[in-house]
Amino acid sequence: MENQTAEHERIFEDLAAEKPRLLNYIRRRVRNTSDTEDIYQEAMARLARQLKTGEPPDNPTGYLYRVATNVINDSMRRKQEPMESVDELADSLDCQRPQPDQQLNDQQCLALFVKQLNELPTTTRNIIIMRKLHGKTNKEIARHLGLSAKAVEKQLNRALKAIEAKMAPHLEA
């Protein structure tokens, strides 16, 4: 009996470390994320009842995920919530890569920006590159180019406004 109790305690300690991952697993599968903790508690209660009545599962972590999935399914059946439409599901997916049409648009905008940048005088182009690409301050740029910080600021603002004005018609389309 004591040996069984010690084994049950070890199982619950191991599963306590799994709690954050299990909560994320549940959260991704339910519509109302406020139900997450309730579902977790119910899954743990079912596991505890299983341990009282029989042998511990061979894979307690896998068993707990299966129980959590069953609790989620039971909850959805009780609420009789319709399944998400494919469009809703697609909208909820977090895609790190832009769609092909967005990639093409981004490439065209970048090409246009580079074209406009290359048409600027060398000093002005260098100011923009140092400021926007390398993150240098106006004072650092001024020291490097032998200009005043105010002159750097003016050239930068004028050049960016000019580029923006030339790109605006292409961006509105």
Explain what this protein looks like in three dimensions.
InterPro entries: RNA_pol_sigma-70-like, RNA_pol_sigma-70_dom, RNA_pol_sigma70_r2, RNA_pol_sigma70_r4_t2, RNA_pol_sigma_r2, RNA_pol_sigma_r3/r4-like, WH-like_DNA-bd_sf. This is RNA polymerase sigma factor. It holds the Pfam family Sigma70_r2. This protein is mostly helical. The protein folds into two domains: 2-92, Rna Polymerase Sigma Factor, Chain: A (Orthogonal Bundle), CATH 1.10.1740; 100-172, Winged helix-like DNA-binding domain superfamily/Winged helix DNA-binding domain (Arc Repressor Mutant, subunit A, Orthogonal Bundle). The protein has eight helices and no strands. Helix 6 packs across helix 8. It is elongated. 9% of the residues are buried. The model has no long low-confidence stretch (mean pLDDT 82).
**Terminal Cα separation, in Å?**
76 Å
Order of helices and strands: HHHHHHHH
Name the structural class: mainly alpha
Please tally the β strands and state the result.
0
